[in-house]
Amino acid sequence: MLLNFATDTANAIPLHVVEADGLNDALAELSAFQQNWTVTQGFKAGLGQVVAIPDADGAIAQVLVGYGTADSRARGRFHMGGIAAKLPDGVYQIASGLAGAVLEEAALAWLLSQYKFDRYAPCRATDAQLVAPDAIDADRIAIIANGEALIRDLINTPASDMGPQELEDAARALAAEHGAKMNVTLGDELVKAGFPMIHTVGRASSRAPRLLDMRWGETGPQLTLVGKGVCFDTGGLNIKPGSSMGLMKKDMGGSATVLGLAHMIMGLGVPIRLRVLIPAVENSIDGDAFRPQDILMSRKGLTVEINNTDAEGRLVLADALTLSDEDKPELVISMATLTGAARVAVGPDLSPFYTDSDAHAAAISDAARVVADPVWRMPFHAPYEAMIEPGIADLDNAPKGGMAGSITAALFLRRFIESPYIHFDIYGWQPTAAPSRPKGGVGMGARAVLEALPKLLNL
Q: What residue stretches are annotated with the Cytosol aminopeptidase domain (predicted)?
């Protein structure tokens, strides 16, 4: 679905955002009738409170929205999205109370609150529409919102309709929309082209594995995005229990996120050369499935001992990262729903990321705060390198012991790349509904990266 601001602005209802300590000043701007009405409704400007004030004919003349205190707002984000969901149908215009980055976040939150995944069942559309505030770049906010909607749509679609072919179709549609070029290496051609681990992970599925390669832009520094595209993960021969397999349609959340980010970058015309690499596979069980204790050869020439076929994401990413390194980009960023250990460490709301560059880490962390896309830096902890070295091969895909699982996975990936590198170990799923984020697929880290690009690439 397309998210956008209201186009009919003639009769927009003014909306005044009131902080708790500004309530008396706000009341002073009202008539005696309006003051009495507001007080009678119990409005105290608490976060999320809404009071619609009628005119003499009973129609809504204006709306007061409670914005609470700084402490209450710090306990969440996208508060305006929650407010939009409480308003009657109509067109609204933020008349006072917000400015700068806070106003931009509010506008984005409002658009994202309209998102509905309605492919399989009808959903009531949110008809509380917002007029784009004059002080924001409305086109930019809409492009970002629709990049996020793309991420959500791709993750929310079940594997029956989002296998490697359908993921390729989505990438091709995005490339066509923005005039990008696409190349796909399919099935057994992966072996001939030098991507043995992508082929090995996906060969047991009836749906052929593939590597998607999109390029856009002719000038500027090169950014390469690599997204994990495991469209469903049974765990392979180390099969997951049912309780762990239930959400595995989202194991392509990294690929969804880089495609959504690519939409933002291309839609905004960021002056870079963009490359997007997605190893798209399904980790299935068949007579041709790879096995525990197999030793695989990678594109880079490093050998990998398989100690768990359920640690497959790092295998397909490794071949793609090696390819990304070959044309010496200024920066490579990988995004993947890679480890449960990351969720244990930081929960579902934070995007853990790894980088050796303090400057890159600061740029992303600062940008994340500006755009309300929370991240947390994790360490490439060198003393753990020994944990990923099994002795009979160069690398172990699943070190025993269960310690530092997200870190060891990141260290594994770093072995396959020499270019400046940032890795995100995201969750890609909103477990319970929150303002502007319904339960289901969700973008993580993409908006922070977009905001940080000027510093990351010296634009």
A: 308-315
What H or E segment, with its residue span, contains residue 377?
A: strand 375-378
Please check whether residues 208 and 270 belong to one and the same domain. Answer: yes
Q: Which of these three, 111, 132, 153, is where a domain ends?
A: 132
Contact predicate 239/287, CB 8 Å? no
CA neighbor of 199 nearest in space, from 229, 167, 190, 231: 190
- Within 13 A of 335's CA, how many CA atoms are on the CB side? 31
Scanning the structure block, which residue is given the tokens 């047991």?
Answer: 204
Boundaries of domain holding 96: 13-132
Note whether residue 279 is domain-resident. Answer: yes
What is the structure's pLDDT at 2? 87
Q: Of 420, 181, 224, 245, which Cα lies nearest the Cα of 317?
A: 224
Active site residues: 240, 314
Rounded (5°) CA angle 334-371-445: 15
Average pLDDT, the chain: 96
Q: With contact defined as beta carbons under 8 Å apart, do 336 and 315 qualify? A: no
Phi first, then psi: give them for residue 455, nearest 5 degrees.
-85, -35
Same domain, 185 and 276: yes
Burial class of 90 by CB neighbour count within 10 A (0 to 12, 13 to 18, 19+): middle
Question: Which is more confidently placed, 249 or 123?
Answer: 249
